Amino acid sequence: MDTKKVAAKKKLLKPEDFTICEATARMIEKGRRDGVETSFDRAANMKPCPIGADSACCKHCSMGPCRLNAKDPYGKVGVCGATIDTIMARNFGRMVAAGAAAHTDHGMSMLDLFRDVVNGKITDYEIKDVYKLEKVAQSIGIETEGREIKDIANDLYDELERTYTQVEGEIPFVSRVPEKTLETWRKNGVVPRGAMREVMELIHRTHMGVDQHYENITKQCSRTALSDGWGGSMVATEISDILFGTPSPVAVDVNMGVLKENYVNIIVHGHEPNMFESMVASVNEPTLVEAAKAAGAEGINLVGMCCSGAEMMSRHGVPHAGNFMSTEAVLITGAVDAMCVDVQCIKQGLVKVAECYGTPLITTNPRCHIEGATHIDFDDHNPKACTDEVVIKAISRFKNRPAEIEIPNIRNTGIHGFSYEYINYMLGGTFRGSYKPLNDNIINGRIRGVAGIVGCTNPRVKHDWVHVELVKELIKNDVLVLQTGCSQISLAKAGLYTPEAAHLAGAGLQEVCETVGMPPCLGMGSCVDNSRILIAASEMVKVGGLGNSIAELPAAGCAPEWMSEKAISIGQYFVASGVYTVFGVSFPIVEETKFHKLLFEGLEAQGFGKWGFAEDPYEIARMMIAHIDKKRKELGIDKARERILIDMADRRAMDAA
Question: Beta partners for 450?
Fold first, then answer.
C-alpha cells in the first residue's frame, strides 16, 4: 500500500460527495487511511477526454486518429473525408456491437450448458423448471403435448441455436413480438437474422471505407441490438430459468452488513449463474464446512455482488453486498476471504485492492484473466473442482486475516425476484393469471404508466443518488417501476423494495401496491434480464386496451448511471422496440448534428422509440412522465385519471376505431 501516493493527491473529495451509500463512504475513508486507492478517487483525478466523450474522434485507421471539433462539427472532416455523422455513427455502432457481443456470448454459453445437461454430458446441473421449459418451447411453435422432456428440450436447443448461427431468416423469439411492432421492424429492414451475423456485419460496416451513411449504419445498429434483446439476452434469461429455477419473490438482505465477522466470507461477482450455482454446492459441502470450523470460523458465508449476485438473490435469496461501484470498497472491510469473478463489469483495480488486504482475487472464466489475479479454470463438466478450490483458498485466508477488520453494520431488507411469470401470477392467481389488472389500472388512471430503470453505477455521478431520486419522483407520480441490474441494489439500499415503501407513491399506485401487497419497484434480476421487461411490455400489448405496439404503451426506460457498451446495446434495443429511453451521465453524440437528430427524433418518426438525455434525476423524471402522458393522450385515456373505469371491450373498440 502506497500511503504517500494516495495522500499526495491534489483533491480528495469527501466520501459523501461520491456516494449516498453509507457503507461505501465508510470504506472509501478507511481505504484512504490504509493508503488504498479506489475508482472513486481515480475518477476525481482523471478528467474524461472531451473529444472522446462527444464521439468526435475517429481512430479506426492509421491515417488518424482524426479529431473533429464538437463546437464546429461541420467545420472539417477526417483525412478520408468522413463527416462527423459518419464518425459518430461508426463509434456508436461499435459500442452496440461490443455490448451485444457480450450478452450474446453469455447467452450462447448458457445454451451450450443446456445442451450438455439435456444430453447427460453434464450431471451437476439439471432442468429445475419443466413448466418454464414447456412454455418457452410453446412460444416458438414447438409441440409439447404428450412428449418426453428430453425430446422437447433438444428441439428447443435446436431452435434457439438459430438465434446465434442463422444467416438468413428471423430469430425464433420474434414470435413474441407484437404484430404491429414486428411490422415496423420488417418495413425498416431491422429484423435480426442471427446474432453472429449481425455483430459481424456491424463491425464490418464500421471499418474504414465501408458504410459511410449514418442512417444506414443506424439501421444495422438497431438490427444488432435487437439480436441482443430479443435474442442473446432473452435466451440467457430463459435458459437460466429452466436450469436453475424461475425467480419468485423472496426477502433478501443487501449491503455490506451481510458480511459476517466470524465466518469465512466468499463473494461471487460477475454475470454467469452456473459458477455461482456450483459455489452454493461447495459452501455447503460438509467436509469444507468442517474445515472452516477447524480454522476457527463458525461457518461459510456466501455473498453476491453485481449481476450474478442479483440472479442468485432473486432465485435463492443469497444476500448481496453491493453493486458495481462498491466492489472495491467491500474488499477494504478486510473481511472478504475470497472474491471469485467470471465475466463483465470486473474492474482491473480489484487486484491491487485485494492485494492490500491479502484477499485472493480469483478469475474463473477463460475469457477473463486479470494480471496479478489467481486463475482457476471453471469447467461446467466438473464445476466443483473450481469452486471447492476457491473455498479452500478462502479458508486459508481466514486463518491469516488482517488484525483489524471493519464491517459496516448496515443491512437493508427488500423483496426481489419479480419474474414476468410471477407478475402474471401475482395479478391474477394460479388459474386467472393475467396482465389485465395492470392494464386496467393504467387505463383507469391509478397507475400512470410503467418505467424500466436499469443499468450500472458510475463514478462520474454521485453513486446511487440519481437512481434513488429518479425512482422516488416516478413513483410519487404513480409510475410503476421495473428494475434490473445494479439499479435495483441502489433502490434496495434506500429501502424502496418493501411493500411499506408504497407510502412514498402517489395515491393511485399506493392503492394498487397495498391491494396486491407489492413494492412500488419490482426487481427483475440481472442486466441480461432486461428481456423480462420486453416480454412484460409485449404481454401488455397482447392483453389489449393500451395500443397495438410497444411504441404505443405509456411506458419509458432509463439508464441513469450507465457506464458500459452493454448499456448502449440495451438502450438501442429498447429504442428499436418502441420505448422512449433516457440516459444519464453523458451521451456519446455531438448535439445539433444530423446523427443526433436521427436518434433523438427521427427514429420515432419511423415507428420506433427514441433516445433522450439528461443528467438531473428530476429532469429525467419530468421527461419520462411527459412521454407517458403523451402516450396516454394518444390512447384517449388521459382523462381516465379521474378514475372512470373503461371496459376492456370498449378499449379494444377504441383501438380499432
Answer: 480, 555
pLDDT band at 650 (very low <50, low <70, confident <90, very high): low
> In 3D, which of 451, 458, 523, 449 has the Cα closest to residue 484?
523
pLDDT tens digit string along 203-257? 999 999 999 999 999 999 999 999 999 999 999 999 999 999 999 999 999 999 9
Q: Does domain 415-656 have CATH number 1.10.260.40?
A: no
pLDDT band of residue 645 (cuts 50, 70, 90) is very low
- Does this model's pTM top 0.85? yes
CA–CA dist 172, 175 (Å, integer): 6
Helices (H), 119-194: 130-139, 149-165, 179-188
Q: At what angle do helices 420-432 and 436-443 cross, to 10 degrees?
A: 100
Contact (Cβ atoms closer than 8 angstroms) between residue 107 and residue 233 = yes
350-353-358-363 Cα dihedral, nearest 10 degrees: 10
Cβ count near 453 (within 10 Å): 29
Q: What is the predicted pLDDT for the residue at 4?
A: 47
CATH 3.40.50.2030 range(s) for the chain read 256-398, 415-656
CA dist 574 and 568 (Å) reads 10
- Span 102-121, average pLDDT: 97
Tell me the one-letter amino acid at 539. Answer: E
374-380 long-range contacts (CB < 8 A, ≥24 apart) are: 378/275, 378/278, 378/342, 380/112, 380/113, 380/116, 380/122, 380/124, 380/125, 380/274
Kind plus residue range of the DSSP H or E element containing 145:
none
- Sign (positive/negative) of CA torsion 530, 99, 329, 14? negative
How many whole angstroms separate alpha carbon 163 and alpha carbon 230? 9
Q: Rounded to an integer, what distance in angstroms lies between the CA atom of residue 595 and that of residue 88?
A: 7
As its CATH architecture, domain 256-398 has 3-Layer(aba) Sandwich (3.40)
Read off the pLDDT of residues 560-601 as tens digits, 9 standing for 90 and up.
Answer: 999 999 999 999 999 999 999 999 999 999 999 999 999 999
Among 539, 546, 537, 574, which Cα is nearest to 559's?
A: 574
529-541: average pLDDT: 95
The CATH class of 78-244 is mainly alpha
What does the alpha-carbon distance between residue 343 and residue 173 come to, in Å, rounded to a whole number? 25
Q: What is the DSSP letter of 380?
A: T
CA distance 505 to 502: 5
* Dist. CA 40–CA 11, nearest whole Å: 12
Q: What is the CA radius of gyration of the chain?
A: 24
DSSP summary character for residue 326 = G
